[in-house]
Design brief:
Largest sheet: 3 strands, mixed
Shape: globular
Radius of gyration: 28 Å
Order of helices and strands: HHHHHHHHHHHHHEHEEHHHHHHHHHHH
Mean pLDDT: 90
Number of strands: 3
Helix content: 55-70%
Strand order of the largest sheet: 1-3-2
Number of helices: 25
Strand content: under 5%
Distance between the termini: 41 Å
Number of domains: 3
Length: 624
């Protein structure tokens, strides 16, 4: 092995490489005219005959949800249910047999999506019922807002009374939860003395009323956390309603202003109580605990059907474990080539120490991005229009964002995770190790070209109506497929770089396992973190960020599983069409991009030009 250069030499090498990359960047010499396409190729754009139908559904649904926007409202659920059911019925009555390949794909996608929307309404209703006792103001807020949307005049005295009722309901819910936190009380004892400012008087009474102690109420942290979030949403809706009238209607302000302020104070206090006393969030801690909200096995089955995946959750976990077997073998092979025997964890530790100095990561990312873009173009693997190759930006990720996303993010641009001077010393070290050279080499192209950036370019220019059917199996599966494919093409050559790529491959196997086991109710967030540390080799900070990202509500339950499962689908499709000689590789990749985002089962139908039957049901066993 060659001796490792000193830090000073390494820094000079990085700067020299960045300078060379700048010289070789096509954007520095490209003419502006190169960014304008040949318009003759765009005069007859390929599009589904149902494109306008899908776009109409999207616009109509958006307007309906804008009008009925109080979360959890029974009226909202009723309106949306009727809307989806009517669309589904009229779609079923359409002349399906007259449609071409693309039209049948869109009809099948829309039918599947409408069915899933109805399932989601049922799920939302069941969850609302679980937290109904904790959110006693939901229907009252909805009634006030929906009355305003019907342009009914506000009755100020009645509005003030409604606000007072909501305050009383909130206080009763809190009292019941407080009783649930205490040891069993003696039956029949009077309620504890009210807190200052909360004395209650019955109508016409001259002394505080004595009421029975409220029935104790206990709930899980998951339901309490969900309720706290719902209360925040309802409070915003209530504020919108109040500001419509306050100051514009003197009578309204005279009656409602003080009850509204009192209710707001009660809601703030109650939300804090839920988070701190029930959920267990320490207000002094800079990191909230990871709670999540599992959807259960039936929820997973419903979501998988929407993604057109013909496997059970348990079968998907077995697929991930099978892929892990391949990864384990390759990890040991790379470790042996690094002179460390089968000790892949020691090899991984060595790789993590090979990072650039603070401030130098942007140069490394830029160099890697340009190298990957040149590679796929020289090998003629996929079309990269000049604008897609050149017009992207590099941005740095904030310390706060790195708690949720400890690695790169991408899309139109690339967002780079690396230590900042606002981090603690431990956080800095873990961020350096988690974003080393070899991890970066295996992920920069995932985020840019030929990954998410190229994908974003085409999403904005071809079959945009299919954004309704957007899925992580297509979005993340595409980028991870390139990690698979460039591995096979020996783009990842040295054992250190292969170790970095294998870390990510193991990471994606683990995502399937820990996310599904969490939603099945088998693992806690802490077990998920421990699994990533022990089985994959994560830094504990990055493992915590990964699990927080997975379960904080920003991503759908199947999002993390979609990476590898989508890539496996594309790999099987590549075998069927390209390896078999039925389709040129470049056309294969171009057709996936131009077809738009949708479940890979429908990509398969598009590429094979299959005319789907009206009663199509997914049956593709892509991992057999």
């Amino acid at each position: 092995m060659m001796p490792r250069p000193s830090p000073g030499c390494a820094l000079l090498a990085v700067l020299a490489t960045a300078a060379l990359a700048a010289e070789n960047n096509p954007a520095s010499t490209r003419a502006t005219a190169d960014y304008v396409p040949d318009v003759a190729t765009l005069t007859k754009p390929a599009s589904s005959e149902l494109r306008e139908l899908v776009e109409r559904f999207v616009s109509d649904r958006r307007d309906l949800e804008r009008f009925y926007n109080v979360p959890g409202s029974a009226v909202r659920a009723q309106q949306l249910r009727g809307f989806f059911e009517t669309w589904l019925a009229r779609l079923g009555a359409m002349s399906f047999d007259q449609l071409g390949v693309d039209g049948r794909i869109d009809a099948t996608l829309l039918r599947t999506r409408l069915g899933h929307e109805l399932q989601l309404l049922e799920r939302e209703g069941a969850r609302a019922q679980e937290m109904a006792a904790l959110v006693p103001i939901a229907e009252e807020v909805a009634r006030l807002q929906e009355s305003r949307r019907r342009l009914e005049p506000v009755e100020a005295k009645g509005a003030a009374a409604a606000l007072g009722r909501m305050k009383g309901a909130v206080e009763q819910a809190r009292a019941a939860l407080e009783a649930g936190l205490k040891p069993a009380a003696t039956e029949g004892t009077a309620a504890p003395s009210p807190r200052p400012g909360e004395e209650k008087r019955s109508e016409g009474a001259t002394s505080p009323s004595i009421t029975a102690r409220p029935a104790p109420l206990t709930v899980s942290k998951v339901v309490a956390f969900r309720a706290a979030n719902r209360l925040g949403e309802l409070q915003k809706s209530l504020e919108e309603w109040f500001k419509i009238f306050d100051g514009y209607d003197p009578t309204f302000g005279w009656w409602a202003r003080d009850p509204y302020k009192q209710l707001t104070t009660s809601l703030d206090d109650y939300g804090k109580f839920l988070r701190e006393k029930i959920v267990g969030i320490d207000p002094k801690s800079k990191d909230e605990p990871i709670i999540g909200d599992p959807i259960g096995r039936e929820g997973l089955r419903a979501d998988l059907a929407n993604e057109m995946i013909a496997y059970t959750p348990e079968e998907l976990i077995k697929i991930a474990e099978h892929e892990f077997t391949w990864v384990d073998r390759e990890l040991k092979r790379a470790a042996r080539e690094m002179g460390l025997g089968d000790d892949w964890k020691a090899a991984l530790e060595k790789v993590k120490e090979d990072h650039v100095e603070p401030g130098q990561q942007p140069a490394v990312v830029r160099d890697l991005a340009l190298e990957a873009a040149r590679y796929v173009q020289e090998k003629n693997l996929v079309t990269v229009p000049p604008l897609a190759a050149d017009v992207w930006l590099l941005r740095m990720m904030s310390p706060e964002a790195q708690k949720v996303n400890p690695f790169f993010l991408g899309g139109n641009d690339i967002i780079v995770a690396f230590p900042t001077d606002a981090m603690s010393q431990e956080e800095k070290v873990q961020s350096l190790r988690a974003n080393n050279r070899h991890f970066a080499r295996a992920t920069v192209f995932h985020e840019l070209v030929p990954g998410h950036h190229l994908q974003s370019y085409w999403r904005a220019r071809s079959n945009q109506h299919r954004e309704l059917f957007s899925t992580p199996f297509w979005i993340e599966g595409w980028s991870l497929w390139w990690e698979f494919h460039l591995w096979d093409l020996k783009f990842i050559a040295t054992p250190e770089d292969r170790m970095g790529a294998l870390f990510w491959r193991a990471h994606r196997c683990a995502r399937i396992i820990f996310s599904l086991k969490f939603h099945l109710g088998e693992w806690t967030p802490q077990q998920c973190i421990d699994f990533l540390v022990e089985r994959v080799g994560h830094e504990r900070a990055s493992a915590t960020g990964e699990v927080r990202r997975s379960f904080n509500g920003s991503y759908s339950p199947l999002y993390q599983a979609g990476y590898m499962l989508g890539a496996l689908q594309i790999r099987d499709l590549y075998r069927q069409l390209v390896t078999s000689g039925k389709m040129p590789e470049k056309q294969f990749h171009d057709d996936i991009l131009r077809g738009g985002t949708m479940p890979i089962e429908m990509v398969r139908a598009l590429l094979t030009q299959e005319k789907l039957p009206r009663d199509f049901k997914p049956a593709w066993r892509f991992a057999e």
